[in-house]
Amino acid sequence: MTRIRTVTTAMIAALLLAVLAANPAAAHNNKLKLTVAGDGADGVTIQATYADGHYLDKAVRLVLTATGSEGRTVGPVQLEPAAEGQGFYTTGPILSPGEWKVRVKPAAPYSGTASAKVQARVAQPPPVVPVAENRDAEPARADRGGDGTAPGWWWAVGLGVATLIVVALTAPLLGRRRRRP
Question: Please, which pLDDT band fits residue 147 given cuts at 50, 70 and 90?
């Protein structure tokens, strides 16, 4: 009878350990550290880690709300992880120009909230870099590719190599045929 109790107790303990090991977030107490910042234009970026500094090991949904000047509001907006990195979230263009107080919190069972003031700006086009003229450069020729190579003669090199291979393989056969009476 005591042997059955011992085996039963061991099986229950093993089951509890398996359940706890299967939930890695529980090992981190479900607490998140969130870092909120503007993206330099009209969006928000969020970096999420566990409170102990470890990277997230699975996707966590975050909820963003924002309050701007003149009573403007955005959200609640549910965010999904971005492809840029582990625990990285981005909203894309969501804010109109001006100062915003952004608040982000995770969905249950996670805890942790972060707030930040974000200055949203109109997205700027990438700068146009002028191309300097190089008067000493060789003029463009029609027989050159865009990268400066001459694509027209490579096929001739390939044909020449193929011809040499065929001649090298057939020459011994032709030489044998002539020797026979």
Answer: low
